[in-house]
Records
---
Amino acid sequence: MLALAVAIGLFALALTWRPSIAEVAPPAASSFPAAAVARGAVLARLGDCAVCHTADGGRPLAGARPLETPFGTLYSDNITPDPETGIGRWSLAAFRRAMRDGVSRTGSHLYPALPYEHFTHVSDGDLDALYAFLMSRRPVRQEAPPNRLIFPLGFRPLLAGWKMLFLHKGPIAPDPDRSADWNRGRYLVEGLGHCGGCHTPRNLAGGEKRGQALAGGAAEGWRAPPLDATNPAARTWTVQALQQYLSTGISPDHSAAGGPMGPVVESLSRVPEGDVRAIATYIASGMGNEGGRTPTRPIDVPGRAAQAYPLGATLFAGACAGCHGGGAPMMGQGRPALGLATNLRDQDPTSAIQAVLRGIQPPVGRRGPLMPGFADALTDEQVAEVLSYARTRFTDRPAWRKLDRKVAHARKESAQP
């Protein structure tokens, strides 16, 4: 029996073992063609590299940003070309393996907070350009803090089993029956853009539910709404509306970007217009125009809502009506009316709660909607009341149940590092 156990252990170790890839001398930034570096800069924005790999107040791409997961806290890696704490001694082969296989240069398995589930589909040419961009950045010496994970998930060889279940490699084949924009959009959404990393629900092991791609998920304590026909928007998301939203953070007929979507919009505002149009084309096709209606005007029934939630009506009049009430000045500046806001219409109140607690910042050049957070001004019960009032007044959706408990949970999520 002991011999069998040892044999099984050795077999398991063999399955999880990956060789290290030899170090290289840090390449000079001037060794990369300027065109490759410029292309890599665009790809880095499409992949939101700086969003996860830059700590609050930290140097760009130097890592150490805490990433909260259901399994504990991970800290992003330094991806500047620092030879000691970054990727300065990584070869192109090591970089490609990390992006496609989730294995570091030293052979250790990487956690799927690096969305190699999607990056595995990126072409050689794009990975090479991204490598050229990263290796031509200024090196920053910065160690990431140790991860804080539930036992025994700190044991990295376990990730080999996870990959066997959830890592599906291979290129994304073009569909000859679709347009060039649609195929480009699919490549970006399912590959480097990794939209499903937030907008697809996950199973108990943290893998994306492949049969429910883009059916809605979670990101940093916010709700990532479905990007399929179940999207709760009051008006249909057209290619034009999506392109405007992704580039500016605002669609007057839909929503304003908040939470983790803000940095995504900021990145997309600095990429070629054609790439944003392609993304919008692909996503709009998946929505199928089945999840939207086109009312002549947004719903607004204050009397019914005040009768149901008198405290919410009072709080709304004092804290919200100056911007969101009838005739408010902001409503003439291209901002979406509350009756059109996706968060307020969603069956999941998480993002509506977080918008009230944390507020919304303009995602692009300080232009766009600015909403202060009320976490310090309103109790959980008061947030629940004002949101219940707003949902009843401005939408035709049923009331959210046990909303005060959900507010308390969202506030706890907001307080995590």
---
Amino acid sequence: MTRFDLPVEELHRFGPDVAEPDDFDRFWAQTIAEARDAGGRVTVTDVDVPLRAVEARELTFPGFAGDPVRAWYLRPAGVATDLPAVVEFLGYGGGRGMPQQRLTWAAAGFAHIVMDTRGQAAADTADPHGSDPSVPGFLTRGIGEPATYYYRRVFTDGVRCVDAVRGLEGIDRSAVAVAGGSQGGGIALAVAGLRHDLVAAIVDYPFLCHFRRAVGMTGREPYQEVARYLAIHRDRTDAVFRTLSYFDGVNFAARATAPALFSVGLQDPVCPPSTVFAAYNAYAASVKEMVTFEFNEHEGGGAGHWPRQAGFLEEQLASAARADRKRDIPVLAAPGQ
């Protein structure tokens, strides 16, 4: 595919005016508080898989409305110390798969939590909440109102997953990172904007960013779901984009504080580079990096990018450890005091 978006030098300066509702923070504070108040049990059970170097467990935690959400909890075998954790969110239509498909982070010495995405085709977690009529897919489910929108539940699940992980035995609660690509990158970005206790965020070619531009720019799925919906419901354009403004990754990015590593393929027709850069340029943390892949589409950097992700996370863990040591140094009184 030929490049169709802005030149890279313009991408780095791209700072669009993205709609942000006045009650954005109140909406999300209330949503998360209600989910926490709903209660529910966190359970961890062993999984019978023939892995020797990695321990596999199933984590079930209460997500939106206390609904049970499933995840894998993987860690290097025989390691009793508290480990830094990577909470991974998944791409559109996918699910957590099988433990043997998710070994990389645990093999590198991290605890790895892989959250299911409720209701999606390959998931093991149901979405028990109905919605108004929508076109096939997930992007228009409940889109009539922010309170009923599908991604309100998914983003809340992401926040509650980190809540659960921080309470697990064997986790260093000061060293929890979030990660994901495409839809998973959008979820990671939302979680990074909704909490300020993360050591890092790894955000690859995120979906769910700058909806107004994406829906009008690309004819590819899943953004095309919104275009098809509005082609039928011609009088709902303003209401639809008002709902989407509560879920736009650009608005979450503006509230994020965790150091972040972004990436994007400059020929990506699914999540156009300018929508990714809109979130990156708005990202509020003082430490952030963008990696671009000039000739790649939605696959981004693929497996070849993982060593850079692991290196970035190690850098942030080391930086956090140095900051902790500095805080622990006693302040000595000046001579004569």
---
Amino acid sequence: MADLELVRSQPDGYCRSLSKGEYPDLCDRDDDGRPRRTGTVWTASAHIITAVIGSGVLSLAWSMAQLGWIAGPIVMLSFAIVTYFTSLLLADCYRSPDSEMGKRNYTYMDAVRANLGGLQIAVCGVVQYSNLVGTAIGYTITSSISMVAIKRSNCFHKHGKDASCHVSNNPYMILFGLIQIVLSQIPDFSKLWWLSIVAAVMSISYSCIGLGLGVVKATDPGHSYGTLDGVSLGDVGASRKVWRVFQALGDVAFAYAFSLVLIEIQDTIKSPPPENRTMKKATLLGVCTTTVFYMLCGCLGYAAFGNDAPGNLLTGFGFYNPYWLIDIANVCIVVHLVGAYQVFTQPLYAFVENSLRRLCPQSAFINKEHVIKIPKYGSYNLNLFRLIWRTIYVVFTTLVAMLLPFFNDILGILGATAFWPLTVYFPIEMYIAQKRISRWTRQWIALESITLVCLLVSIAALVGSIEGVVDDLRIYRPFKSQY
């Protein structure tokens, strides 16, 4: 290990000079003996943008309509600030006990185990991995909505506005699932950088299109630009207004959810410099980029549609003109979600496979890699267990998505259940434990106050989103599309 540390501290040229000498493999290994990580601030930022600018951006205009011109921007900025602050704390938990020289924590659960221990490890695992599953289901639903929108748009353009262009979501969910079965065979997170870059470009592209369409529609004369307090009590009633505000909080929380994969992203970053420094730069770049887009898309979307803003921003522009531009935006959404699905699913794949390897170290079915030669590509390592279990997982998420095609309510539940524990509670508690902050000091009280306020917001968002699902179930028929 001492030799490894000495070699890694030298310039790249020194490593190349050793490649034919006494230490041919040292330059290809990190301080933990694993293959050397190659991630940079740019690849980490791409992962973050792919994870953050997801389908949540499409619901922000609707959220603004529930909150109004005063509370809406304040809520979005507040979530951005809290997410950025706690992400900085979480980045310091990648190594323990020292944030720069300690032992690596490869997953979120490893960080909780090293800093908190006890029952909180199991709680973290249940919350994190159930939300990873839920996010995969939500992305399957959203991708099908966009594919259906393309089909309907082309149908209306070809046959006229009065044509019957009913389209089922189910075949498109199945198509999305088939694509994910293929991509799920990407071995691990470190091999996912190229897909994240493509997805990040796509997310920025459809956000810009939505932004441009919002500007054009907002400049049309004669329509409402929204109100200071959003949808009025007279339109929906007092109780419904409260539920919608709570659900909007959940949608905004979901839009900023990436902490559940932050440690896994950080584990792809090379060092030196220390991983936490690079991750903090990537977090600043990622959160600032997404917040600018969120504020623009949410505010301009609300200005365009007023209190009638749709749950999915792009569906509000209709299917007619400019239908081709909306089609492009929906294609970008689908491509982005193809990559985002993998960003949120790879940590779950790794958890299951690593756990079984530890339990069954002698099993050839679980551990053996079969080398397959692919012309013009090279070799690919096929693992039978990986092939079968990941395929079953994708089939499962696809079936659940077909059963529960509720867009906004699903987003709200995912955001509410993940935001407080994974974005706020665990990062703050791990930071307190790592820095040995004493109880009832000013710093301790300030940190715990943030935790308490965010808990109350998350509870409100969860209650509102559950009420929305209950309301949807009153008219719901399994496997029947609303389009």
